[in-house]
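Write out the 3D structure for:
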Amino acid sequence: MPVEVMAQRGEGTLRFGPMKPVGLVNPKTGHRPWAVLQLRKENKAGNMYNLVGFQTNLKFPEQKRVFSLIPALHNAEFVRYGVMHRNTFLDSPRILNSDFSVKDNPNLFFAGQITGVEGYMESAASGIMAGINACRVAKGESTITLPNDTMIGALSAYISDSSVKKFQPMGANFGVLPELENRPRDKKERGAAYSARALKSLDNYLKDI
């Protein structure tokens, strides 16, 4: 989503998006900052940085004007301006099985964001699963799909669910997992319960392979 669209949704929207300060503490004050900018080093010399999460459709002169309003960037030199990138992905529920193979050609596998999993870890995990299954097919073995109470199993089920009519990429989130039987109210306890259930389920599943 363009950063300017997020900004239009309210004064505090950006600090819950690309300027989210959760987990960061100012070492001088011991307090969490109100908002932060995440910079990613672009070159070995460390004199060029990418502004993370600031996709935009603003014209280049307007980017210079708006982003220079941020105190930390007031004197920054902008050597390259931002543009929107377009994610291309398959209509996976119509094309892929849960093992990441193509329904019309089980010897062909896809992995990564093109399958509709969103994020680095999710893409890497899908690649691992596709690679394992391609090797199993080459050896004449059946493919595997992890249980749907594990995160990659749940995402595998999502991208291959033919009941999904308007398919959009999905990243890892607790919402794709089956609900817990005794769902803790505390967020940390709830996350730990999801994790413990997934690890137990995965351990049992791997024993049967």
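The chain is about 30% helix and 10% strand.
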